[in-house]
From TrEMBL:
Residues 1-22 form the signal peptide. PROSITE patterns: PROKAR_LIPOPROTEIN (PS51257). Keywords: Signal. It comes from the Bacteria. This is ABC transporter substrate-binding protein. The keyword Signal applies.
Length: 490
């Protein structure tokens, strides 16, 4: 059986490699080789399908002022991207610049461990005028800097950008006799609104995708009112899917599903988004990026409203997390065009440059390196900004690497989550589809993660790293308040 599995993996890798070579050309000197006229092709990969035309515009504009550099920007579906990019690195067919955000604040550490990235600047240190484009505190050792070198930069800012918003379909709300100016603010009000939608319209109440990781869209929105939208509790230093707050959130989702308030089926996000845009659902939970997604489908913001996520009836005891997780574009360790990749990212992040102006004109969201108040003109995103500015809606969470600098060298958290990276979603989907309690599935996963995590920390401490579970434990943190820099011992 092992031999068969190895053969299957080898065949899949060969198929991908063949496809990549075909896509990149058949030049025997490699997919990133310089052409006879001196022009190079800089390859960029991401999964922003709604931005394909935008990226073509960006590529054409950059080539005007840099005729020796051709930008080839490739976007594929998010699910396929998670499989294709690792195989591309394995087969030495990786792009020059790629998008990767799965690790959150641990993103850089994960990518360094995998040997996927080079420093932003060939010297390792970008010029000061580049670093000053971001607010103070944006560059942190262990998050986007390591060993005196800078590897990443915040692309998305972390106040407005993120999950947790409730989108309301104006037509369905009107047909159900609901007041858009008084959206559901509590879990009970959400159930009451769904009852009206179900009784008065042919539409579903909530289009909630649940395929693979997609259940996060409703879970994050509802969990934030109870504790946080994180699966790791930074107050106790433990993985937390089996804790009462997480179980309470999931039980409410099960209740909504049992009442027929969630659209039936194990659907992906694209199906659920299309349901909402086709006036077949009243509510969709998701993030700041949705206005651009619907705009690309011809469903503009005059057809929907944006509201905060509802909280438990007893009031919010948690908030959405505000983290150092906006570092998303990276220079590949396999690029032969390090200097050109740096020059493009430097051009892309010019606060007054073409990329920024076009990004906002298209209504794609908010960026970390420019003035969002000045640049945002999309009404839906302006409403999102008002919501996010409400005190307590999104809060700064503790940062372990600021408590223990050696966390930047630790592999404990990555090992704990790496074996089953989608484990929390797998457990929740199994419980939701199977209509059974989450607690046993969650406890098994948490036990596995926590054991790996703590054992690795002990192993690293024995080898000389100054790390422990306490580095991830902040008992003085209030889930509804910012954890300020003054909290860290200096």
């Amino acid at each position: 059986m092992k031999a068969l599995r190895r053969a299957a993996v080898a065949a899949a890798t060969l198929t991908l490699t063949t496809a990549l070579i075909a896509a990149c050309g058949t030049d025997p000197s490699g997919p990133n080789a310089q052409q006879a006229d001196g022009q190079i092709t800089l390859k960029i990969w991401d999964f922003s399908a709604e931005q394909v035309d935008f990226h073509k515009t960006i590529a054409a504009e950059y080539n005007k002022s840099n005729p020796k550099v051709k930008i080839e920007w490739r976007s594929i579906t998010q699910d396929e991207y998670a499989k294709t990019l690792p195989l591309a690195f394995q087969s030495k067919q990786a792009p020059d610049i790629f998008y990767w955000s799965d690790g959150g604040p641990m993103n850089m550490g994960q990518l360094l461990t995998q040997q996927w990235i080079k420093p932003l600047h060939p010297s390792g240190k970008p010029p000061e005028d580049f670093l000053k484009r971001w607010p103070a505190g944006s560059f942190v050792d262990g998050i986007n800097q390591s060993g005196g070198q800078t590897y990443g930069f915040p692309f998305s800012e972390n106040l407005y950008w993120g999950p947790g918003y409730m989108y309301l379909n104006k037509k369905v709300f009107s047909d159900a006799g609901l007041d858009l100016n008084n959206p559901p603010k509590t879990w009970s009000e959400l159930k009451a609104a769904c009852a009206k939608v179900k009784a008065s319209t042919k539409a579903e109440c909530i289009a909630a995708p649940s395929k693979g990781r997609e259940l996060q869209r409703i879970y994050f929105a509802l969990a934030a009112g109870v504790r946080t939208d994180l699966f790791f509790d930074l107050k106790t230093g433990k993985f937390a899917l089996d804790d009462p707050p997480a179980l309470k959130t999931f039980e409410f989702i099960q209740e909504l599903n049992g009442n027929g308030y969630l659209a039936p089926g194990t659907n992906d996000k694209n199906f659920s988004r299309q349901q909402f845009a086709a006036n077949q659902a009243a509510i969709y939970f998701d993030g700041t990026w949705m206005p651009s997604v619907w705009k690309s489908q011809g469903f503009t913001s005059d057809n929907y409203a944006v509201a905060p996520h509802p909280n438990p009836d007893t009031g919010a005891t948690g908030a959405l997390s505000r983290q150092h997780d906006g570092n998303k574009y990276w220079i590949s360790s396999q690029t032969p065009h390090h200097q050109q990749a740096w020059e493009f990212l430097n051009w892309m992040t010019d606060p007054d440059g073409f990329f920024v102006k076009e990004y906002y004109q298209q209504g794609f969201g908010t960026l970390a390196f420019t003035d969002n108040k000045k640049m945002v003109t999309e009404p839906a995103i302006q409403q999102i900004m008002k919501i996010a500015e409400t005190p307590g809606f999104r809060v700064n969470v503790p940062v372990p690497v600021l408590k223990c600098t050696d966390i930047a060298k630790s592999k404990a958290y990555l090992e704990a989550t790496g074996k089953r990276p989608a484990g929390e979603y797998e457990a929740m989907v199994e419980a939701l589809v199977g209509k059974k309690p989450l607690a046993p599935l969650a406890s098994a996963l948490v036990r596995e993660r926590q054991t790996t995590f703590e054992n690795k920390l002990k192993e690293e401490a024995a080898a000389g790293l100054k790390v422990s579970k306490e580095c991830y434990t902040f008992p003085d943190w209030d889930y509804t308040a910012d954890y300020g820099l003054d909290k860290y011992k200096r």
